[in-house]
Specification:
Blueprint (H helix, E strand, L loop, with lengths): L1 H11 L4 H14 L4 H16 L2 H12 L9
Helix pairs in contact: 1-2, 2-3
Family: Belongs to the enoyl-CoA hydratase/isomerase family.
Organism: Paraburkholderia gardini
Protein name: Enoyl-CoA hydratase/isomerase-like protein
Length: about 70
């Protein structure tokens, strides 16, 4: 029940698609991994996200006070 609801919330969130996917992966991993490994997984996902065009777009949109135009790349 909780997994389904958490996934539903993430999919309807107004966020970049890559961030939503990474959040879902981290959430699902948290049910199966010990805390230390789960945190390492989350850090890995975050590092990968920071290298995307969507991350750059999110920062630029925030600075320009506009809605981001995420491309999923």
């Amino acid at each position: 029940m909780f997994r389904h609801r958490a996934t539903e919330v993430l999919l309807t969130a107004k966020n970049g698609p890559l961030a939503v996917l990474a959040a879902r992966q981290a959430l699902l991993a948290s049910f199966e991994l010990p805390m230390k490994q789960g945190l390492a997984k989350e850090a890995e996902l975050q590092r990968n996200l920071l290298l995307t065009d969507d991350a750059t777009e999110g920062i630029a949109a925030f600075a320009a006070r506009r809605e981001p135009q995420y491309k999923g790349a």
